[in-house]
Amino acid sequence: xxxxxxxxxxxxxxxxxxxxxxxxxxxxxxxxxxxxxxxxxxxxxxxxxxxxxxxxxxxxxxxxxxxxxxxxxxxxxxxxxxxxxxxxxxxxxxxxxxxxxxxxxxxxxxxxxxxxxxxxxxxxxxxxxxxxxxxxxxxxxxxxxxxxxxxxxxxxxxxxxxxxxxxxxxxxxxxxxxxxxxxxxxxxxxxxxxxxxxxxxxxxxxxxxxxxxxxxxxxxxxxxxxxxxxxx
Length: 232
What we know:
By secondary structure, the chain is mostly beta strands. It has one helix spanning about 85-90, and strands spanning about 1-5, 15, 30-35, 45-50, 55-60, 75-80, 90-100, 105-110, 115, 120-130, 130-140, 150-160, 170-180, 185, 195, 195-200, 205-215, 220-230. The strands form two sheets. Strands 1, 3, 4, 6, 12, 13, 14, 15 and 18 form a nine-stranded antiparallel sheet that branches. Strands 2, 5, 7, 8, 9, 10, 11, 16 and 17 form a nine-stranded antiparallel sheet that branches.
């Protein structure tokens, strides 16, 4: 296993704009920031303030790691997350923690994952059925509790070959499961085998931590630490 770790200390960028969603016509957040770790608080703090349904994304690109067997690439995205107060419960539409993986084949695998507060804490994954859209998995974990250091792990399986393998079509991805605070949840089979898109991005692992405001607008922040991408 290769572990690309302590990613909270690597440079993060900020992205806002209609390309990542938001109200129509688009209204940018009043502010969206990513504060670097400090000696006292070794976490990045992602914060948003704005009006209804606007959003912002913290982004980082990490290297693509060549797999021994490209037909079964196992990747785990993990991090600790602290929601310091009740603002996220009041103002967040969703707390989105995504990993997009682009291989040297040019295929991009969208591992977007979120806990949707407006769906009473339902886990959603981004898939193609029949067009790209957020899918309700039926897994209800409730809203993340505040003032608790949560540990999250999201597990991916990729077939990055032009032939079917391991029950997966060519160039496809599964979000197989996730763990929250040590409890394992399996993503149902109906949401597996999501086809990759031939986007020809620079090969790498693209992390995206996105904050989405709900219909009232408002402000909230979340701390992320011990961020890692595990190639297994």
